[in-house]
Q: What sequence folds into this?
């Protein structure tokens, strides 16, 4: 998991919720380990399952807490215990996450929130194609072409940022590159890149507000209330 630190999201949407929560998306501790969860983030989930606080000693551990459990853990509960970035990372641990319509549309929705900061039209077009493909309205060939274009935009953005790292153009490039990766790969690495770019480019207050909106939408999706789930 990317962030072993304190949760960035309040528990206002529910207290600690584990396998009894009726949500669509769940993982197991084995899933988290298999995908290489960071020690701090994993151990925070374990302590939440146990109903125990995550102590300073826990934060200094260099190994996973031994806790045999095969119970399903809701993504919503990981949001409550660990925060939005770990919750999204865990979401990507779900088998075939990159093929799941809801997860793909959630990724597109997140990218839409910063679309106004994207400077390369290829990144914006890629979002449109990704959304249509998730809804069965674009072919695999169209998606592949959009991915190639988005990757080219990301490479161009990275090159521009390398030459002009202190400029506003470089920050725009970082946003473009990160969000192109986010919708494209639907992987933990891509989400990490998006989060890192957003954290650097936005003020603390703006990033906190964005995280809160993402958290709310993640809960809505997990509980079947997302805007793209209505009428499905």
A:
């Amino acid at each position: 998991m990317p962030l072993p630190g304190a949760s960035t999201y309040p528990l206002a949407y529910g207290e600690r919720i584990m396998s009894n929560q009726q949500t669509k998306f769940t993982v197991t501790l084995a899933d988290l380990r298999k995908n290489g969860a960071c020690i701090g983030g994993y151990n925070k989930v374990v302590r939440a399952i146990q109903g125990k606080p995550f102590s300073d000693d826990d934060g200094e551990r260099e190994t996973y807490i031994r806790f045999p459990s095969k119970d399903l853990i809701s993504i919503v509960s990981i949001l409550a215990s660990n925060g939005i970035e770990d919750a999204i990372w865990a979401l990507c641990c779900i088998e075939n996450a990159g093929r799941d319509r809801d997860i793909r549309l959630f990724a597109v929705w997140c990218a839409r929130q910063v679309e106004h900061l994207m400077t390369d039209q290829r990144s914006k077009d890629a979002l449109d194609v990704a959304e249509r493909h998730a809804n069965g309205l674009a072919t695999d060939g169209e998606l592949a072409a959009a991915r190639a274009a988005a990757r080219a935009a990301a490479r161009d953005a990275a090159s521009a940022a390398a030459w002009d790292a202190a400029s506003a153009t470089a920050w725009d490039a970082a946003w473009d590159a990160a969000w192109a990766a986010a919708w494209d790969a639907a992987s933990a690495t891509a989400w990490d890149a998006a989060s890192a770019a957003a954290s650097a480019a936005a003020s603390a207050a703006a990033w906190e507000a964005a995280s809160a909106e993402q958290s709310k939408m993640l809960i809505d999706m997990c509980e079947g209330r997302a805007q793209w789930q209505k009428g499905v």
